[in-house]
Structures are given as structure tokens and as C-alpha cells.
């Protein structure tokens, strides 16, 4: 929990923290996140100097305190090229914290892109930066400034004719929007699916292999495919691309939950 949440916890928890802090000799201003061990016998004091400024704060210093043995293990990550970072920091704050909705909106949008899958491998800065690059996502402040569609549009800015088909990629697994739909149960076998802007059709092929009744249409790769009603229509990366101008775009983090929705369900 962030230290601002300490006001809401029982006195016994604050007493445990005070004991750990005294053993480690850490002043009250020397840390801003506290982690309590499940057994209650150990406490970690963590210092993220830019907790509120960085979307994924870097850990600069930590103290791990064994209360029963009165032992302290101190680490400094200052200057290290690959320090630990913090995700989902909104969960450490009080429910009524003024910036919690802003942080939650960013987390929700990144989840829609599938960035947090296999979260055990993204706990350090280099691994996290690599994950963002793999998904074509860039974060500035607490907002996404690039998405797979945005990257394509920056590479091929709008002119007299935009050759969007050149951004289509080959896939060996479902795209992020389709995977989100699948994870949330929208791609049941009793539903019909239309992949509008299907590109090279890999999502269509993979879903058909699962027995899903899916069709795909694309102005370049599948213009002759019939368009009709469907229970689920995927517009992933299509709406994003059409809404952009030739300049880089910025999604309002408070609108991100709606703006990044990968599908429309009738």
C-alpha cells in the first residue's frame, strides 16, 4: 500500500510498520510504499521517488525487515540500467484518491491491448519497455500516445491516398482485440463474427480452426467477401486508424476505456 492508505488501516498494522521502520532506521519520509508479508513477520519499505509522476515508477531503494530476527536487508537501485518498476499503482491508493481514476484508465487501456499478459516477465524497466514495443504502444505521462494503428499512421502519413494495406501483418496467434473478445466469452460457437478490416485474414483463419462462424472483409485483401449482420463485429485498429490525422494523436486517458474498446456487440 501507498503511505496515503495507512490512514485507513487498523492501528495494529501501523504499529507493525513503526516497529519495522525503527529496526531499519528509516525516517517516515524515506519511503512511500509498504509491503507486508503474508505471515506478518516481515515488512518491506519501498521508495519510488516519482510515484505520482511516472506511469510505471522506478524503485530506487528498498528495505526488507525480518521482524522476528530484527534483521534488515537494504538495496539501492539508483543508477542501475534495469531497475524494478511498479504496475497498477492505483491499487495501492485509497479509493477516493483524486488521481486513481486516471491511473485506472491507463491500466484498463493497456489491458485491452493485451500488454499485461504473462505479467511475471515485465517487472523490470527493460522488459517492460520491450513489451510495449512489441505491442506498438508508447506511454507519455499517463496516456497512450501510440497504438499499433498509430504506429502505422505515423509511418504512412495521410496524403492523397493512404496505402493502409501495407501495414497489415502476418499473425500466428489472435490479435489483441480478438484475444480480448475471446477471453471475455464473446466468441462463443453460437455467435457469428465479422472481422471488418481483417487484413490478411489470419484472425479469420484461426477462429475458423476453433469452429467459430466468422467472416472477414478488407478493402484490399478481401473486398469480394460479403458484408452482412453479425453478432460480434471487430473493428480493432480500424476505428483507431480512421480517426487519426497525419499528426501523432493523443488519447484522453479518461476516455481510453471507451476509445480502445475492440468490438461492438449487437
Keywords:
10 strands; four-stranded antiparallel beta sheet; elongated; 26% helix; 8 helices; four-stranded mixed beta sheet; 266 residues; disordered C terminus; alpha+beta
Structure description:
The protein has 266 residues and is an alpha+beta fold. The chain has helices at residues 11-24, 100-112, 125-134, 148-155, 176-183, 202-209, 238-242, 256-259; strands spanning 33-36, 42-47, 61-66, 71-76, 138-140, 143-146, 192-196, 213-217, 232-234, 263-265. The chain folds into 2 domains: 3-76, no CATH class; 146-265, no CATH class. It is 26% helix and 17% strand. The longest helix is centred in the first third of the chain and has 14 residues, at 11-24. Mean pLDDT is 81; it is low at 153-162 and 241-266.
Q: What's the count of strands?
A: 10
Overall geometry: elongated
What share of residues are in beta strands?
15-25%
Number of helices: 8
The amount of helix comes to: 25-40%
Main-sheet strand order equals 1-2-3-4
Radius of gyration: 23 Å
Distance between the termini: 41 Å
Integer tally of domains: 2
Oligomer class: single chain
Sheet/helix structural class: alpha+beta
Q: What average pLDDT do the residues reach? A: 81
Which segments are poorly predicted (pLDDT under 50) over 5 or more consecutive residues?
153-162, 241-266
Along the chain, the helix and strand elements come as HEEEEHHEEHHEHEEHHE
Amino acid at each position: 500500500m501507498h503511505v496515503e492508505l495507512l490512514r485507513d488501516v487498523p492501528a495494529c498494522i501501523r504499529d507493525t510498520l513503526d516497529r519495522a521502520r525503527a529496526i531499519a532506521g528509516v525516517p517516515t519520509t524515506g519511503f512511500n510504499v509498504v509491503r507486508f508479508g503474508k505471515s506478518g513477520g516481515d515488512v518491506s519499505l519501498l521508495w519510488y521517488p516519482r510515484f505520482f509522476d511516472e506511469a510505471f515508477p522506478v524503485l530506487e531503494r528498498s528495505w526488507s525487515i525480518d521482524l522476528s530476527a530484527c534483521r534488515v536487508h537494504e538495496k539501492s537501485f539508483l543508477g542501475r540500467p534495469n531497475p524494478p518498476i511498479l504496475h497498477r499503482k492505483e491499487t495501492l491508493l485509497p479509493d477516493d484518491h483524486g488521481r486513481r481514476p486516471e491511473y485506472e484508465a491507463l491500466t484498463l487501456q493497456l489491458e485491452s491491448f493485451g500488454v499485461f499478459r504473462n505479467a511475471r516477465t515485465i517487472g523490470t524497466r527493460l522488459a517492460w519497455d520491450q513489451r510495449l514495443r512489441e505491442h506498438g504502444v508508447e506511454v507519455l505521462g499517463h496516456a497512450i500516445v501510440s497504438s499499433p494503428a498509430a504506429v502505422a499512421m505515423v509511418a504512412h502519413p495521410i496524403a492523397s491516398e493512404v496505402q493502409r494495406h501495407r501495414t497489415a501483418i502476418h499473425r500466428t496467434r489472435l490479435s489483441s482485440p480478438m484475444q480480448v473478445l475471446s477471453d471475455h466469452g464473446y466468441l462463443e460457437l453460437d455467435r457469428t463474427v465479422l472481422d471488418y478490416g481483417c487484413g490478411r485474414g489470419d484472425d479469420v483463419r484461426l477462429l475458423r480452426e476453433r469452429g467459430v462462424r466468422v467472416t472477414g472483409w478488407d478493402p484490399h485483401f478481401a473486398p469480394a467477401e460479403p458484408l452482412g449482420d453479425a453478432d460480434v463485429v471487430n473493428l480493432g485498429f480500424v476505428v483507431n486508424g480512421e480517426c487519426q490525422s497525419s499528426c501523432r494523436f493523443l488519447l484522453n486517458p479518461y476516455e481510453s476505456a471507451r476509445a480502445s474498446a475492440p468490438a461492438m456487440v449487437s
